[in-house]
Amino acid sequence: MNNSNIIQSRIRKFMLTVVGISGLLTFNPAAGSAQTTVKGKPVEQVNFQQDKFGRIFFPVKISKDTATLLFSTFGEPVRLSSYFQKTEELFPGWEYMMQTDRNGKSHRRLIFNLPKMEIGKTKVRSLPVLVNYAFPDSLVTGSTGTKMLSRYNWSIDNDNKKLAFSKGAFLPSNEFTAIPFAKNTAPQVSVGIDGIIEDFKLDLGSGASFQVNTESPLGQALLKKYQPRPRVTLTSTVHARKLVDTIYKIQVPELQFNGLTLKNQQITLSTAFPHHLVGAAFLNQYNIVINHSGKRKTGNSFILEERKKS
């Protein structure tokens, strides 16, 4: 087993990923799309790049800076590096967000306000922002969240590396499965493994395929049945004085995903995240439509579409 302090290495890897992707992304306000939506609303489209885990990065403009955002469907506010505090683009708000670390300790975090962000030709105004202090303040980057994503409907074309968004709902062309979810929440799906059914968050900001919390009943059942050897043990001091996380990987013969049976899926077991996740490594095997109905609780859909055969 490999024991290491991963903080600096994760930062370096993230920086290399963002810097490399930033060099490939071009901010093109004129990039349009011939695609139409159900209600015929205008569609904005930008190019994106992916890292080796399949996570999506796309360009935005904040004042005079071009930033690279990770397309994340889990967190609530937009997350930005503290670089944007230095440039005085963020203004302290009146709200706080409570976060709980893995030791159960709560932390109160101030929510900032970003007056304007541009995606293509679209100006997205008054966004709640959480500053991510885990990365150097020279990094011009961040990630989306449900507060931002819920203002539009989104179409991810993984075949052509195009991200489109509109006020009108997108019409899927080759649906594999549709997953309903509530307004202003992270989408989630019912997953059954070895007779145990639990909810998994759909998180395009995670590079995992299927990730299970080791300490959950499902995680303990999988460890007992498959008895995997630890892949790696990581020591972290990000959210607490010292936390040790042992990661396991197994392959299950089949699992149930939103009522469908999927064969030979890889599962990562970890205590690093308190929720079960389905990440980009699995989700981006499909094209994706995320429609927000605007209704209070129902009508939102996370739709996976079959991709073109290569």
What does this structure look like?
This is Aspartyl protease. It comes from Pedobacter antarcticus. The protein is mainly beta and 310 residues long. It folds into two domains: 159 residues, Cathepsin D, subunit A, domain 1; 129 residues, Cathepsin D, subunit A, domain 1 (Beta Barrel), CATH 2.40.70.10. Helices cover 13% and strands 47% of the residues. The protein has an eight-stranded mixed sheet with strand order 3-4-5-10-6-9-8-7.
SS strand fraction: over 45%
Q: Care to count the β-strands?
A: 22
> In total, how many domains does the architecture comprise?
2
Going by CATH, what is the homologous superfamily of the largest domain?
Acid Proteases
Major sheet attributes: 8 strands, mixed
Q: Report the CATH topology name of the largest domain.
A: Cathepsin D, subunit A, domain 1
Shape from CA axes?
globular
As a whole number of angstroms, the C-alpha radius of gyration is 19 Å
Distance between the termini: 39 Å
Q: List low-pLDDT spans.
A: 1-16, 26-36, 237-241
* Secondary-structure-derived class: mainly beta
Amount of helix? 10-25%
CATH architecture term of the largest domain:
Beta Barrel
Protein name: Aspartyl protease
